[in-house]
Amino acid sequence: MKAVTAAVAAGVAGLALIGASLPVEQAFSTASAQTPRVAPVAAAPIKVNVRRITETQYRHAIANVFGPDIKLNARFEPEKREDGLLAIGGAQLSLTSSGFEQYYSLASSIADQALNEKVRARTVPCQPADAKKSDDACARQVISRIGEQLFRRPLTSTELGARVKTASNGAAKTGDFYGGMKLALVSLLMAPEYLFRMEMAEADPAKAGAYRLDGYTKASRLSYLLWDSGPDQELMDAAKSGAIHSDATLKQQLARMVAAPKFRDGARAFFVDMLQLDGFDNLTKDPGAYPKFNQSVSDSAKEQTLRTMVDLLVDKKRDYRDIFSSNETQINRYLASIYKVPYASKDEWTSYTFPESSERAGVLTQVSFLSLFAHPAASSPTRRGVKVHEIFMCEPTPDPPADVDFSKVRDSASGTVRGRLLDHMQNTGCTACHRRSDPPGLALEHFDGLGQLRLSENGAPIDVSADVDGKTITGAQGLAKYLHEDKKVPACLVRNVFAYGTGRKTDERDEDYLAGQTSAFAASGYRLPDLMVQVASSPEFLKATIPAGAAQAAAPTTAKPKQ
Question: Is this prediction's pTM over 0.85?
Answer without folding.
Answer: yes
